[in-house]
Amino acid sequence: MTSAALHGKRVAILVASGFEQIEMTQPREALESAGARTTLISPGGERVRANKHDEPGDEFPVDLPLSRAKADDYDALLLPGGVANPDRLRAIPEAVAFARAFVDANKPIAAICHGPWTLVEADAVRGKRLTSWPSLKTDIRNAGGMWEDREVVRDGLLVTSRKPDDIPAFNRETIETFAG
User: Fold this and answer.
1) Rounded to whole angstroms, what are the CA distances from 73 to 10, 33, 68, 77, 159?
2) 1 lies in a domain?
């Protein structure tokens, strides 16, 4: 069933190689089914490779290089997880600045699994309740966030989830939040 909850909304999906495939593809499909237009943005190359847990996943075409992306052109941001992806993104100042621009513009952000690492680097979790893959708990707390072990946590315009098993709840809450 197609919904128009996000009709006309533009969602940036920021990834580097090593993102968890299902944490990008399933939320992207849900967003597009709800009427959003998504753009896969990456800091390097014309294609980006996913992971399926510890194994290589599929390659995906990059819609827009990070060097040409502007947060002003989007209504919301999706940050998939996977260990390597956010670890790479948080080391790229332009990626951190791109994520921070959504925070500064008071736009909704959804991050799953290791995805919040980019937000930690962007100093965007201070005073926020959120969840993530459990290994990020200390990083989030050290950055001033309040970590919770729940399938989905919404704090204002920030939606977070722990892992692929949480994707149904993550998608539901993300669509509701992105719809405004």
Assistant:
1) 8, 20, 11, 11, 20
2) no
Tell whether 5 is covered by a domain.
no
Residue 16 sits in which domain range?
10-179
Nearest one of 67, 47, 46 to 57, comparing CA atoms: 47
Residues tagged active-site: 113-114
Residue pLDDT, tens place only, 136-168: 999 999 999 999 999 999 999 999 999 999 999
Task: Scan for tokens 């290791």, then name that residue.
Answer: 114
Q: Would 133 be classed as within a structural domain?
A: yes
Residues in the chain: 180
In a domain, 2, yes or no: no
Integer Cα distance of 110 and 173 in angstroms: 9
Q: Tell me, what's the pLDDT at 45?
A: 84
- Number of domains, the chain: 1
Q: What is the pLDDT of residues 40-94, one digit of tens each?
A: 999 988 999 999 998 999 999 999 999 999 999 999 999 999 999 999 999 999 9
Report the CATH number that the domain containing residue 37 is assigned in CATH: 3.40.50.880
Angle at 107 between CA 106 and CA 108, to 5 degrees: 125
Would the pTM count as exceeding 0.70?
yes
